[in-house]
Amino acid sequence: MKKQSGQSIIKLFLREAALVAKDHSLLLTLLIAPLLYAFFYGSIYINKEEQNVKLAVVDDDHSRLSRLLQQNIDNSPIVELIHFPNLEEAKEQMYRGNCQGYFYIPKGTESNLLTLKQSNVVLAVNAARFLPSSDILMNVQQICLTIGAGVRLQYFQKSEGMSSTIAMQNVLPVNLDYRPMFNERSSYGAFLLPGLLALILQQTLLIGLSESVAGERQHSRIGEWLRGGISTGIWGKGLFYLFLFSAYAFFFLNVNYNLLNLPMRGNGFELSVLLILFILTLIPMAQFIGSLFKSQLLCLQMMAFSTYPIFLITGYSWPFESLPLAVQWLSKLLPTTPFIQIYSSIVQSGASLSANPSALIHLILLWCFYSVIAYIRLNMLKKNLLSA
């Protein structure tokens, strides 16, 4: 019995490979799209950080301090200063989109700072574009604090005769030791790319396999596919996708990660186990979804439409706890939600597979859930076919 079941699974595996080879839509989705998307989207974020974000500067102080501020800001690889003679012209250039903000140094900035008076400089940024504004703010703020502290340190040393240690304590009574962990440069590309590669793996599998199942209904091949039993049919067809997407996962982790210079801090074996479990969960999920459609084209359109919503509600691009409660419950039905939590901690933080037991149990339960509902749905289709 086991031998016959094994032979049936192998036959279904070869049958699925033959179907994919004949179907141009499946061939494009399964063999071209994963590699094309991985390299295309990866190339967009290959630099990971912005460079030479234009910032207008107006210097009404014309002091040694103002020149030092401008020199240090301009030396930053992220910010490129553009000088303007007056504030009105700098604002106009920002409104036109020629620069992402303006930095204004008013008259008396240096003299106020040297006499221990509060000295204000103005940084206005175009917050309609989130990344440029946050990058400018982070760089300019750090430089202003560093230079301001240095000027006051010299004042205490020369005017008050303080030692370097005591002067530093007066300048910085509370010293913040800021250490970003894992994504040390706080770059958007390094944050986004690991999750993006996982999403490409998931969506191409879901689209391809659900489209294949919808094709079985459209071309009246359900009886042929499920002849050896429902479980044999599910895992015979699914075996082809398990091998194919396990190979893609291995390729992404070894080729794309190296080309994009992404760190992989976790254990490779544990990550492999996680990816196989994830693919095993997606296989019955895709077959259940595909069984709901009689048209292969309609299934393809609906699944392609779902890509961006799935990415948004999994808690990767926005904190899961901040999502509306109804969206949180919907998100918990997706294997992506627990997978991304474990995957990110292994890849980016170097955690072990057992570091997220609740997410791991969640993913296993979803595997069981989708296996059951796929079995029930396909069994219904088979009974309807026999009774027709």
Automatic annotation (TrEMBL):
It is a multi-pass membrane protein. It comes from the Bacteria. Gene3D superfamilies: abc type-2 transporter like domain. Residues 25-373 form the ABC-2 type transporter transmembrane domain. It is found in: Cell membrane. Keywords: Cell membrane, Membrane, Transmembrane, Transmembrane helix. It holds the Pfam family ABC2_membrane_3. InterPro entries: ABC-2_transporter_component, ABC2_TM. The chain crosses the membrane at residues 25-46, 188-209, 230-251, 271-290, 297-318, 359-378. Its main location: membrane. This is ABC transporter permease. It comes from Pedobacter panaciterrae.
